[in-house]
Amino acid sequence: MDPKALLEEAARERGLGVAWAPLAPQEEAKARFQAWLGAGRHGGMAYLEGRVEERFDPRRRFPMAHSALLLFAPYAFPDPGKPPGGLRVGRVARYAWVRDYHLLLGEELRRLERVAEGLGVFAKGYVDHGPLSERTLAALSGAGWIGRNGYFLSQGFGVHAFIAVLLTSLEVAPSPLHPPRCGRCSRCLPACPTGALLGDGTLDARVCVSYLTVEHKGFIPPGLWPGIGAWLLGCDLCGEACPWGRFGKAWPGFAPEPELAHPDLRDFFRLSGHAFRKKYAGTAFLRPGRARMARNALIVLANLGLGESLMAEAAQDPNPLVRRTALHALFRAGKPIQGFLKDPDPTVRQDAQALLEAPGAVDLLQGGGQAPGPEVKEQGTEVVGYLEEAGLEGIRVQEEGVGPRLPGEA
């Protein structure tokens, strides 16, 4: 059996889907990516700006590589159920219900690297941790297509699948590209609560709930809170709306855990940093960390009208990001906020002063305002200042009570 077939067999034995793609510069995909960066739609993910040439032509870094073995690990597993006790409200994106997929698939890649080495084949594994466009390579393999929601879609596994890549020195022939099968369907676009999807397979990360709750490091402006809804970590709405989800499968290497699917929100306020890292080691919760998970939990509690006692606890949190979010959550709940005028952090004090002096101009949750889309009306210098401070400049907050607009809508 030739090395290509042996590597395929080794991957399939582990329950992974496989496809091959030859390596070549992907100029069209690179141009789209650069235009997306140029528009600032990557938000605070500055790391995406580097090594763009390598991202779309991995041979620049690994000249001996000629092909990519694409590995697909579907994660359309069922909800593992909610554990008893605790304050378990809000939603966690499906991908975070299991141990960190970077670690799980990283182990599979290392195993395949050893198989390749035994065959005298160069191999280098990637799983969303370096300058490589996995979706572009997956589309090039012919295994599926990039949908309007930005997911890599396939009739073989549906919507939800992690992609890992094994670069190899093997030569492979090009495969026919899979025709896009979204057709006239656009269910994902109205499903997005903040209008982040642009309809062309890209999104504006600055108002994407997944970006805000996972990647964004700072304060989340209250004008964006309604769109976050009950999402503690990530968001699955545009994927759940996709009809191709009926083909969903689950890789047997995944074991969803109740404590990850339905965490106790009290952890994010009462665990020390060390205790948090110990409990959530090897999970997606470490990406935002304890303070940002507390921030997210406060937003969810404010949106659901729950947890005022936890909000009061958070007002004494050692992290100013948590205290600042608690200030706005308590204000939303109609609770006194005068105590924040003595907060040790000047930004928290300034927010408290502004809320007390002109509450409607600063906290757009008053009046039940909806979450903004990527191109919306400007309202209030205070709110725009929050957006700029948060690295979300270019986004404008809508008038209260006005729903999200997609680009081009009046």
TrEMBL record:
It comes from Thermus brockianus. GO terms for biological process: tRNA queuosine(34) biosynthetic process. The keyword tRNA processing applies. GO terms for molecular function: 4 iron, 4 sulfur cluster binding; epoxyqueuosine reductase activity; metal ion binding. Residues 172-202 form the 4Fe-4S ferredoxin-type domain. Keywords: 4Fe-4S, Cytoplasm, Iron, Iron-sulfur, Metal-binding, Oxidoreductase, Queuosine biosynthesis, tRNA processing. This is Epoxyqueuosine reductase. The keyword tRNA processing applies. NCBIfam families: tRNA epoxyqueuosine(34) reductase QueG. It holds the Pfam family QueG_DUF1730. PROSITE patterns: 4FE4S_FER_1, 4FE4S_FER_2. The lineage of its organism: Bacteria, Thermotogati, Deinococcota, Deinococci, Thermales.
